[in-house]
Specification:
The chain has about 475 residues and is an alpha+beta fold. It contains 10 helices and 19 strands. Helix 1 packs antiparallel against helix 2, helix 2 runs antiparallel to helix 3 and helix 6 runs parallel beside helix 10. About 10% of the residues have low confidence.
Length: about 475
Amino acid sequence: MNRERAETHLRLLAEAEMRDALQEAPLVAGRWPADRSDASFGRMARVARALTDVHALEVETAEAILADFATALGARQRSDQGRLMMRYESALRTRASRAQWFVRPGAPGRPGLGSQAPAGPARPGHGGPIRLMPLGLTAWYSHDGLDGELHLLSYSRTVSGARFAIALRMSAGGGLPLPAGLFGVTDDKGAHYSLSFTSCGGPDWTGEIRLHPDPPDHVRWFDLAPPGGPALRVNVNLAAPQDDTCPQVTETGLAPGEHLLNQVAERLLIVAQDFPPDPRPWPGTGHAGPFGGIAAGLGDVVSALEAAGALPPVSPVPGRLAALCASLRVTGHGITAPPARDLPEPWLSLLAHYHRRKPDPAPVWDGFAGAATALPELDGIRLMLLGVHTSEGRTVLHLRASSQDGAGQPLGHDLPLSVWVRDSGGRWHVAEQDSWAHDGGEYALTLRLVPPLARSAAWIELQAAGLSAQVRAKLPLRWGSGHD
């Protein structure tokens, strides 16, 4: 990584943009056209964000360059340059926390990339699970004319406490979930627990039920007594992991710029699923259609990453990204590399789904599945899968995330890991961050799978990739009762 070259490249880009824009769009009535200034600043901001994402440029340095550029634009517009800064500076600032994860292994003061968790049970100081158990159970309840089902996806006990990952399905028009105090919980020693409920909302109320106080390490089971329904015994004994469920860690050999561009490709594939192919022009979205905001300026980003040493000149990723854009009919991206023919298998799977080149999988019925595992640390982040839930054609993964030192380093709105799922039918699904909440040094996350997961899947292979390493874990799905 060459920070001097990265800074020089951004400054030269600012000079070239100013010079070219003045030649293409001269002042009109003493002002520079606002749409041209916005486009120029947008181009600068995209490149600056990319360089900060891969840690080739400090956020403060990038902001200073953008501020100088905004001042120059404002002087030529005879207007307040603050309008431009308010529009783009906040977007750059939100990347500051994410940029800390894109660093080379062994960098001073940074966690090693692709490092594995210590052998044996994780200790609370590491933010890892003390107990983790897939469930796939349902408790039925009835109270004050309200009937529903409480689906228990998993039980976990971590540094932030003990909880059940849940999905709560209520009768039509049921409104808000029942108060957690109506549910009674007793362990195998007769100890009683109070509950608190946190929700992510949605068609089914998904979230967590937290147990107070924290149960002891040796608890074997809980009896959950819902109002108006039969008690449910929940076994939380740890089962010995099978050989094929043990996470496997391999190196990726990716440069920081390649990892970043792969995530751009994932975003394009996610957006594509919401906009099926249509030969007609995209109404109201410009010539690039719904992908314009993602693909615009990719050629500039590639050039900047190469100049900073974050992307090898012979990297196949820009060519693959160009081929993906061609398949999605995305124009205006500016990538000069010729389209590649060797697209990754997960990309091809989602493209086939997008273009309907093969029949759709089995119907996506509502359901939930117990599936739980703790992944080794990747880029200083540790993920725990707590369950799978599908409702109204939408599948989400329930996870917990923590930093290497358990201090709850901010993950922000962008999880700096690529997460994919391959199901037992051979189809691939890409995950995008759906919701997150900070909780006692950890993050509660939900990731939406695109396309959704069919209930016919007997197992999934979860693949999470960081900069230098990726981990795969094959997990059986314990599908519980749901509404078909």
